Every structure is written in structure tokens, then in C-alpha cells.
Amino acid sequence: MRAVWINGVSGSGKSALAAVLAGRGLPAIDADEDPALAGWVDEDGRPVAESQTDADWLRQHLWVWHPERLDELIGAPGSADAGTVYVCGNAANDAELWDRFARVVLLVVDEPTMLARLDDPARDNDFGRSPDERALCVEWLPSFQRERLALGAIPIDASQPLEQVADAVIRIATPGPGATSPHT
């Protein structure tokens, strides 16, 4: 199975994109919705049951993916299933996970778009709503995007309509001539 990772800052549209892709009949995983995949850990890597929203706590804890669960979800590279699975989300331990993906896509947004989406009452993820979380997201935005691009993530303008973003992701994910790879 081929795996495509769609990442971006909070408010970039990862969960919304997972829903659109799933609505098109494609295997899409919203990483935040799988408690066996994603969770908070302390500085020593120990799981933490509950999160807090103050700046000090956020700076001492990381949102990580559990590699074993990720491997279960995406299947072994080169497995008999030739389909593509889309994994939408972020993890602080992304450097150790990068090589599991055939393509890595970065949903690029500007600060006003990110903040408007964090404020959207219809948004089903509360991260980014508290003042400290919001400040962390603003601080994190430029460096996160710059670092992911330097690692070879393929940028997509996530401020365009969601259906267009989904079309662009599918084009990038499709193997063949003209497909872009973060590993070439």
C-alpha cells in the first residue's frame, strides 16, 4: 500500500480534507481521531492522559504518533494492496516517520486564514481556541512550514476551496510521469 501524508499547522484543513477524501471513497485517516495512533507525551516520552492549554504545559509536552499503530494503518511498504491511503495530521516525531510515506504534502496557509479557521465554530477540533494554544500556533506557523518544505514536503495552497485542495492532493499522490516526490 502507498501512503501519502498530508500535514500542516492547526487550522490548515487536515481533518476537513480527510473527510472530503473519505467522501470520495478513498481510504483517509484523520490521525487526531485515532487514540491508538496519536497522543500527548511528557518530556520523557510517557503518555499523558489529559492535556492542558497553558503555554508552559504545551512547551513541556509533545503530540506524537505511535509508529507501530501507524504501520498497522498504512500497511507494510510494497504490500500486495496497491492502493493509496491518505494520512492527515501532524506529529512532533515526524522525522522518524517520514520514510513511511511515498509522498508528503504540506497544506500551506497564511496566518489570517489559520486564525479564521481556528475560530470557526463548526470546527470539530478545539486545539487552537485557547489564548495560549492560539499564540503557540501563530509562533509555530512560519517555522513549521519552512522546516517541512526543507524536508521535501510538496506544498499545496490550502486557502483555496477544499475540493480543489483534494484534487491537488490526489494528483500528487498518483504515481506516474510528472508526479512529484519528496524523496527525489
Can you walk through the features of this model?
There is one protein chain. With 184 residues, the chain is an alpha/beta fold. Helices cover 35% and strands 17% of the residues. It has helices spanning 14-23, 55-59, 67-74, 111-119, 131-150, 162-173; strands at 2-7, 28-30, 38-41, 62-65, 84-88, 103-108, 154-157. The strands form two sheets. The chain has a five-stranded parallel β-sheet with strand order 2-5-1-6-7, sandwiched between helices. It is globular and about 45 Å long.
Shape: globular
Radius of gyration: 16 Å
Q: Indicate the multimeric state.
A: single chain
End-to-end span in angstroms?
19 Å
How big a fraction of the residues is strand?
15-25%
Largest sheet composition: 5 strands, parallel
Which strands sit side by side, in order, in the main sheet?
2-5-1-6-7
Query: What is the β-strand count?
Result: 7
The percent of residues in helical segments reads 25-40%
Secondary-structure-derived class: alpha/beta
Average pLDDT rating: 85
Element pattern in H and E: EHEEHEHEEHHEH
Which blocks of ≥5 consecutive residues have pLDDT under 50? 178-184
Q: What's the helix count?
A: 6
